[in-house]
UniProtKB/TrEMBL annotation:
Descriptive protein name: TMEM175 family protein
Membrane topology classification: Multi-pass membrane protein
High-level lineage: Bacteria, Bacillati, Actinomycetota, Actinomycetes, Micrococcales
Domain of life per record: Bacteria
Catalytic activity: K(+)(in) = K(+)(out)
Length: 222
């Protein structure tokens, strides 16, 4: 065994995923907090405050949308690490790529808030949010390929989860060509995320859980 092989075996994989999970949680928390920090209180006379707040509605809308989507990605990330039995260096690098994009959520929110009527504003927002989901999905797929999940996690449950996590990035990325023709239509297309996820919930509630693991809690895959 070479020194490089010995190094990789000793340091690039192992059962401890807590530090990676804690660090990731911190990045998600900071990114979600900065979404609100970017919304400034209007510095206007009192008789103009109401109008100024109303004019900030695009900023509040971008904040709400971005917070909800980021929270959904965090929940998916949390579920992934809750099911892992260990890590590899590739999984950690994928996780860092995910956090690289998560840190740009504030920039994406500002783009859609101030340039949501422009093609580039919508494309940048959809691309960043979509790429976060692509990397998140890649982490799920890689973990399954490398057998990093705990032994008691049924393959059918993993297949269901992997399908669910791919919905949001698929909708965002598919909205990019729509934005090239009509930015407003692209933003409306994002409601498909809610519709498709509701459909999955309905179908999932009717499908029996694998007998080996029993029925999952109601919120286990929301």
């Amino acid at each position: 065994m070479s020194m490089n092989q010995a190094f990789a075996r000793r340091f690039n994989s192992g059962p401890d995923v807590e530090r990676t999970a804690f660090f990731s949680d911190a990045v998600f928390a900071i990114a979600m907090t900065l979404l609100a920090v970017d919304i400034k209180v209007p510095q206007v006379p009192g008789d103009e405050l109401g109008r100024a707040v109303v004019e900030q509605s695009p900023e509040f809308g971008a904040y709400l949308l971005s917070f909800v989507v980021t929270a959904a990605y965090w929940l998916s990330h949390h579920r992934l690490f809750r099911l892992l039995s260990g890590f590899t260096v590739v999984l950690q690098r994928l996780n860092l790529a995910l956090l690289l994009l998560v840190a740009l959520i504030g920039y994406a929110a500002d783009m859609i808030a101030f340039h949501g009527d422009q093609v580039l504003g919508v494309v940048v927002y959809a691309a960043i949010l979509g790429l976060i989901g692509v990397v998140n999905t890649a982490m799920w797929l890689y973990a399954g390929h490398r057998g990093l999940f705990q032994d008691d996690v049924h393959p059918r449950l993993l297949a269901y989860a992997r399908t669910r996590v791919a919905v949001t990035p698929a909708v965002f990325l598919l909205s990019i060509p729509i934005a090239l023709l009509n930015p407003a239509a692209a933003t409306y297309s994002w409601t498909a995320i809610v519709v498709v996820n509701l459909l999955f919930r309905v179908l999932g509630s009717r499908a029996p859980a694998p007998a080996e693991i029993g029925a999952p809690p109601d919120d286990s895959l929301d």
